[in-house]
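Feature request disguised as a bug: please show the residue count (479) next to Proton-translocating NADH-quinone oxidoreductase chain N in the output. Example input:
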Amino acid sequence: MVWLIIYPLLTAFILGIIKRIIADYLDFITLSIFSGYLLIVFKITSSIGSNGIEYFLGSWEKLLGIRLHLAADGVFMVWLIALLTYLILIYCSSYIQENKAKYYILIYVLTASLMGLVLTADFFNLYVWFEIASIVSYSLAAINQNRNNFEGVLKYIVVGSIGGMLVLLAIILSYKLTGTLDLAEIAIRSQNISDFQQATIKILLLVGFGSKIALVPLHAWLPDVYTNANVTFNALSSALILKTVLYSLIKVLHNLFGGAFFSSKLQIIVMMWGVITFLVAHLLAYQQQNIKRLLAYSSIAHLGYLIMVFSLGTEKGLIAANFHLLNHALMKSALFLLSGILSLRIKSYLIRDWQGLGYKFPYSTLLFTGVSLAIIGLPPFNGFVSKWLMVQAIIDAGYVNIAFTILIGTILSLVYYLRIIKVLYSRRKNWEEEFDNNYKESKRLTAVTTVLAGSCLVLGIIPGPMLELINKTISILGG
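Example output, currently without the count:
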């Protein structure tokens, strides 16, 4: 199991040494190596039993050593990280023109750190991988050395550092109270600490992780970073980095405090935090003229949905949240990558400059339109199924008024996504003068976005197998 972390780290090291020698074959070698990684993922995940598998690094005793644990809940995230990273690497092979070797190296290190977050079973090493993922994210966001991105990346670093410090304080406090860093052991010993101390740990974790996943009002860095960063980073961040950090938060809370990890009062606070996050983010998205800023606020909104439903701690809530986590990762990565394709043609991310693309470039705009309808939550796409499940879970938990806010959020997102679709299919004059007619779309870019957009439709029409898998995972968790 440790090879899920070591393999991408070794690959990054090797690529760093031989990048000049293999410059002409860099794309082929990078993708071939990751294909081998997928085989390793398959071999490991296919051998997991009901109790999962464990691995201890070195000869340290359990309470102090580094323990890796992969159970059914982790398999879901391992495959999501591996498959989406592979698709984004294929996209990068045609899209990235500058600093490609550095980009590949950082993506491999990022893969290792995200796998570490999913697999680690001790508190301190979760923090280590948490910080490594953050550092790689800062590097990927700033790799183009765009002066306009300086402010956004600086905000990202400052907010991320404060969030990391709060998480570290939670770890120090839990270690002082329990005398161990092993999550399973902390769960046993935390029963002996007071409610106030437990609440303090939970709040530190919520605010610390909340700053990393850009919950309102800790969100200001994300739109600024996404506006000037490469769309491949935006896809990685929205689909994988933010989702894995959120998954880590839920994993820690679930391991330490059980299925109902929030008291009734704290649960209401967290749910309202989620509601405020997605309502504010939707309203801000409506005001944007830059497509990347709009998609950034949309990502914040959906993280609000997720934290709201995860906070229920019920089986239905966890199933709905996990399914929406998967769906949003697919939808948002597709939208960012499609916007990258369209921007190559018109050299602009301003919505007004996209006028008429539906007639000039029908296939990519058709995919963009379909995924936009999916993320709004309209049938027959996957977004409709996961939003329906979220509403059911919230109503079953007795929060009918909060369930109604999801409908409000859906209407708000419908308004600003329809505005983009309207622009795409509005006719425009002087096409020949304004557009590069010599531009030829890469088959790799189209293939990747087709797979992502197609999966949104398939999971909307046939959600059963994936929901059954998630249901088994939640049953094992004891949610």
